[in-house]
Design brief:
alpha/beta; about 400 residues; 434 Repressor (Amino-terminal Domain); two-stranded antiparallel ribbon; Arc Repressor Mutant, subunit A; 7 strands; elongated; single chain; 4 domains
């Protein structure tokens, strides 16, 4: 290892990286001290940036954490767990704190890999012009409805349902959207990096309707409070922060515009003269949200009686049985962990001979056999354009840079 590189490392930053890698593995400082046969006080000093690392020590740390030495030498990404905004009550965060910290470390690692792929391919994503909105002093529901309307116009959506929200936001806004397994109480994480832009992680263990709602919710944070970190947790509603309440309302309005829902509702009423739980199930399927969310949306517009969902639940109405009666077959959509642009860059780097098969496998977190299978099955993805500026000297000359 180049001694000059080690000497130039910021001890405080690499200490943070090492502490994060340790926590991600579930090790205590005492565990690491024992594995490395050094004093726990030495581990503390290294993680605090009070002691310079030797090259051999960094190699040993990387080995026990299952990481590459290069992971600790790459440029820093500004994802920090500082004052996270929480959905509902902060006690949830205390209960989920360890998992949330590990998830943010994972998101940070993925973003580093993304930047590394951009550097390898000499490609920089084109910045998408997405406005930010000031909602201070505006009634929350009014702000949510008005901004959702503006975004639907800007994204050329009209009032139709959004078939693939992830593709839309990745392509039209430049958001970097990852899908990670999380415990059920965590819905999503949003953060902002100065180079990559908005970064979102959605709970891949949730059903598709819930993932869509969480993604719209995190998108609201990108629009309203872009430079903060947000961790969305599920809990009984107590005191909800203003920004969280806005994000919740925005998701409702963005996914199910009021005028579109009213139009569909009155169309049903005029056709049959009644409005039943079967109709709620049909509307939920049409707009791509859950039965519960659709019932609440109808309640909020006074199209059905307030408290209807609680009464239906008490009467043991089962939406899944109604879906079967109506012949609704929901396809189980398996989302890839990585954004499409990330996958395209990894494929381009491999096909251009810039990275080995082993490195390609590492970027996609697959073994080599599965990586080959991925390449074979996703040729169409590779042929799609990469949205960005080619930073190679030849291409820069061609565009006059």
């Amino acid at each position: 290892m180049d001694l000059d590189i080690i000497s130039k490392l910021n001890s405080l930053e690499i200490g943070k990286e090492l502490a994060g890698a340790r926590k991600a593995k579930g090790f205590t400082q005492s565990d690491v001290a024992e594995l490395l046969s050094i004093a726990r006080t030495t581990i503390i000093a290294i993680e605090k940036g009070e002691r310079k690392l030797k090259p051999s020590e960094l190699a040993h740390f990387a080995e026990i954490y299952g990481r590459s030495v290069k992971d600790f030498l790459r440029k820093d990404i500004s994802l920090e767990i500082q004052n996270p905004q929480l959905r509902f009550h902060s006690s949830s965060y205390e209960l989920q704190k360890e998992e949330v910290e590990k998830l943010i470390i994972e998101l940070k690692k993925l973003c580093k890999n993304y930047l590394e792929l951009e550097e390898i391919c000499k490609f920089k994503k084109i910045g998408k012009t997405t406005p930010t909105y000031n909602i201070q002093g505006i009634p929350i529901n009014d702000a949510a409805q008005e901004i959702s309307k503006k975004e639907r116009v800007r994204l050329e959506l009209g009032e139709l349902p959004i078939p693939d929200l992830r593709d839309l936001l990745e392509d039209k806004t430049g958001l970097n959207i990852f899908y990670l397994p999380m415990s059920f109480k965590i819905s999503g994480i949003y953060s902002y990096d100065r180079e990559l832009g908005g970064c979102i992680a959605i709970n891949s263990n949730h059903p598709e309707s819930k993932r869509r709602a969480s993604l719209a919710h995190e998108y609201a944070h990108y629009l309203e409070n872009r430079f903060s970190i947000s961790v969305s947790l599920e809990e009984s509603k107590k005191k909800i922060p203003y920004s969280e309440l806005f994000a919740e309302r925005f998701a409702f309005h963005f996914l199910v515009p009021s005028s579109a829902l009213k139009s569909k509702y009155y169309e049903i009423k005029q056709s049959t003269g009644v409005f039943t739980p079967r109709d709620i199930v049909s509307l939920a399927y049409y707009f791509g949200i859950s039965f519960q969310a659709m019932t609440y949306r109808l309640e909020s517009l006074d199209l059905v009686a307030r408290g209807l969902y609680d009464r239906l639940k008490k009467n043991k109405i089962k939406p899944s049985e109604i879906e079967q009666e109506l012949g609704i077959k929901k396809e189980v959509k398996v989302e890839n962990k990585f954004p499409k642009q990330y996958l395209r860059l990894a494929m381009q780097a491999y096909y251009d001979g810039l990275i080995s098969e082993g490195s390609f496998s590492k970027y996609l977190e697959l073994d080599r056999i599965d990586a080959r299978d991925f390449l074979e099955k996703n040729k169409e993805l590779y042929e799609e354009p990469i949205y960005g500026v080619d930073l190679s000297s030849k291409k820069l000359e061609e565009i006059g840079v």
